């Protein structure tokens, strides 16, 4: 069998040549083979580029999508996942118990003070975030 032609038109650069920085937010719509999806995203980052990832650590289950809601990671779980796909990343959790309860109740950021939101409690992360820089 012959080699398949690239789906990219010759006039457009390939994604791995142009993506310098991207923000990736993974949540319940993430594909099931999440490791392969992350490998593909990492491959699309140009040398010297960066990738920012956010994932929920705490969130309400959608009653209509509960059977397909698989993706919640504490910071340690996100670090483990990224390590498995060979992505060197710094991972941290952000949030606190009050922000978590407010999010579960459907309150907005305006319902809490900046002082309440500025508290970061590693025992109650609302989101886990990762920063990965691809070597030049």
Describe it:
- The protein has helices spanning 15-18, 34-44, 75-84, 97-104, 114-118, and strands spanning 19-25, 45-56, 89-94, 127-133.
- With 136 residues, the protein is α+β, with helices and mostly antiparallel strands.
- It has a domain at 18-94 and 125-133: 3-Layer(aba) Sandwich (Rossmann fold).
- The longest helix has 11 residues, at 34-44.
- It is globular and about 40 Å long.
Inertia-based shape = globular
Low-confidence stretches: 1-19
Strands in their spatial order, largest beta sheet: 1-2-4-3
- The topology string of helices and strands comes to HEHEHEHHE
Strand content: 15-25%
Secondary structure tally: strands: 4
CATH architecture identity of the domain at 18-94 and 125-133: 3-Layer(aba) Sandwich
Question: Gist?
Answer:
This protein has 136 residues and is α+β, with helices and mostly antiparallel strands. The protein is 28% helix and 24% strand.
Mind sketching the topology for me?
Blueprint: H1 15-18, E1 19-25, H2 34-44, E2 45-56, H3 75-84, E3 89-94, H4 97-104, H5 114-118, E4 127-133
Parallel strand pairs: 1-2
Antiparallel strand pairs: 2-4, 3-4
Task: Provide the descriptors you would attach to this structure in a database record.
136 residues, alpha+beta, Rossmann fold, 4-stranded mixed β-sheet, 5 helices, 24% strand
């Amino acid at each position: 069998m012959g080699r398949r032609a690239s789906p990219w038109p010759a006039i457009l650069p390939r994604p791995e040549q142009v993506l310098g920085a991207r923000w990736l937010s993974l949540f319940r719509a993430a594909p099931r083979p999440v490791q392969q999806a992350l490998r593909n995203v990492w491959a699309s980052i140009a040398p010297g580029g960066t990738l920012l990832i956010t994932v929920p650590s705490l969130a309400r289950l959608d009653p209509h999508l509960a059977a397909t809601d698989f993706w919640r990671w504490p910071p340690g779980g996100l670090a483990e996942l990224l390590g498995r796909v060979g992505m060197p990343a710094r991972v941290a959790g952000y949030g606190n118990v009050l922000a978590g309860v407010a999010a579960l109740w459907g309150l907005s950021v305006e319902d809490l003070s900046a002082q309440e939101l500025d508290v970061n409690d590693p025992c109650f992360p609302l989101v886990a975030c990762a920063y990965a820089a691809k070597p030049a």
